[in-house]
Amino acid sequence: MVTGEVLEAGHAVQVAERLEQDNPDWLVLYGSYTREFVAFPVYPDAPDNCYCSAKDPAALDGHIRETERRTGHVRLMPG
């Protein structure tokens, strides 16, 4: 039997994948135990031990932007 939590977790994984597509300089995962989205910067000048986490994907996106601003990371837009 498939529960609502499993379906919800499956959808959350899809949301994490979308966040990663929108933020190519970050590895984005969904923790099914913590039910949090976690992002790790993968750009070369990323600070050590840096990550962002949030239960709400929109909040995670904001944390990512703030971390990039704080560390001086310049996001290149595809053109």
Describe what this molecule looks like in 3D:
This protein has 79 residues and is an alpha+beta fold. Helix content is 43%, strand content 19%. It has a three-stranded antiparallel beta sheet. Strand 1 and strand 2 form a beta hairpin. The longest helix has 19 residues. The radius of gyration is 14 Å and the shape is globular. The mean pLDDT is 86.
N to C succession of SSEs:
HEEEH
Please give the radius of gyration in angstroms: 14 Å
Q: Could you give the count of β-strands?
A: 3
Which spans have pLDDT < 50 for at least 5 consecutive residues?
A: none
Alpha carbon gap, first and last residue: 46 Å
Structural class per helix/strand content?
alpha+beta
Strand residue content: 15-25%
Shape: globular
Q: How are the strands of the biggest sheet laid out side by side?
A: 1-2-3
Percent in helix: 40-55%
The largest pleated sheet is described as: 3 strands, antiparallel
Number of helices: 2
Mean pLDDT: 86
